[in-house]
Specification:
Layout lengths: L3 E7 L3 H14 L4 E7 L5 H8 L4 E5 L4 H10 L6 E6 L2 E3 L4 H10 L3 E10 L14 E3 L5 E3 L2 E2 L2 E2 L10 E2 L7 E5 H6 L12 H11 L3 E12 L10 H18 L2 H24 L3 H16 L1 H12 L15 H7 L13
Length: about 350
């Protein structure tokens, strides 16, 4: 019989644990619930000891980021399936069973995400994952239900379960054997884009990634690092470039990087036009960091190639989501991308 563990990575999130952990405990049986504390300096652990005695706690001495924190903690979790769950996610009564059943019934599936909706606007999808994720040829992520900052209302248009390119790290059920087979999350990413890179390696290893509409959760979003923080911009851009360099064959990689220079230049101008000079500076810093780390990234690429072949973007639906969104003004996946 397979076993499952719901694993929450916590960093100074006592308020989220207090708000959301009780429902996770109530609705996740018979799975074990585990909290990995990423070197918190608040009273998270004291609250857990007093109010959540059924939860297993793994304490890390410092903040290792999303990738490092999960890798370190998951080494201590013994389960066939592990569900990465953000601390700011509200689960529903039957959220876990469809995800576990999906992995049980499909041995070639490495990861499956639920429908992720907004905690604050409960009829809408949530930015981080929505109804499953994709990439365009230049490495820009988008979702069924969310393209750039345009989020759709859930009207049942994505009630079909289907394979996707990536699943959201906000809530992602993963086959533990597959996770370690591809090397886990890339700890150089620290945070942001790391689950997309992981899912890309799943595809390279011959696995599938799915979205399962029978499971539904509600995500607050931005609980650790908000969109207003330039560091989030920096991490998204530099990690996206590194992900392309690690996974794409040479010819499409060259095209993608040349295109990114142009498109990210326009992003800088857009930030400046909106008075967000710090975000424009974060993009420039991201490129500098990417170029500084390119030799290391290339060594990682070569090491991965020895095990798994390079692969163009899996399940690519459009060449450029920026062109589709900003020029063609097609801003709803359900009305445009789904018909291509």
């Amino acid at each position: 019989m397979t076993s499952a563990a719901v694993v929450i990575l916590n960093y100074n999130g006592r308020h989220y644990l207090e708000q959301f952990l009780p429902s996770v405990i109530r609705y996740s049986s018979p799975a074990q619930v585990v909290v990995i504390d990423n070197g918190s300096t608040d009273d998270s652990m004291a609250w857990l000891s007093a109010h959540a005695t059924s939860v297993s706690c793994i304490r890390l001495n410092q903040n290792l980021g999303f990738s490092g924190g999960y890798n370190a903690g998951l080494h201590q979790v013994k389960a066939d399936y592990v569900v990465l769950l953000n601390s700011d996610v509200e689960v529903t009564e039957n959220w876990l069973q469809p995800l576990v059943a999906h992995l049980n019934n499909n041995p070639d599936v490495a990861a499956v995400q639920p429908k992720i909706k907004s905690f604050h606007q409960r009829t809408n999808f949530e930015y981080a994952g929505a109804a499953g994720g994709f990439l365009d040829a230049f490495g820009y992520p988008f979702c069924r239900g969310r393209i750039f900052d345009k989020v759709e209302e859930d009207r049942g248009q994505y009630n079909d379960s289907r394979p996707v390119m990536w699943g959201s790290g906000a809530c992602l059920a993963i086959r533990a054997k597959a996770y370690w087979h591809v090397g886990g999350l890339d700890e150089h990413f620290f945070a942001h884009m790391e689950e997309i890179d992981l899912c890309w390696r799943f595809h390279r290893a011959g696995y599938q990634v799915w979205y399962n509409a029978q499971s539904e959760v509600f995500h607050v979003g931005g609980g650790t690092l908000s969109a207003a923080n330039p560091r989030k911009t920096y991490l998204n851009f530099t990690n996206s470039l590194a992900m392309l360099a690690k996974n794409l064959p040479v010819a499409p990689l060259v095209v993608a990087l040349l295109g990114r220079v142009v498109l990210d230049g326009f992003a800088c101008l857009l930030f400046l036009s909106r008075g967000h000079a710090q975000h424009a500076a974060a993009v420039v810093k991201a490129y500098w960091q990417f170029l500084s780390n390119l030799a290391r990234v290339w060594r990682e690429r070569q090491a991965i190639v020895k095990r798994f072949p390079l692969l163009r973007v899996p399940h690519q639906t459009v060449l450029s989501i920026a062109w589709t969104f900003f020029v063609l003004r097609q801003q709803r996946f359900s009305e445009t991308i789904a018909r291509q």
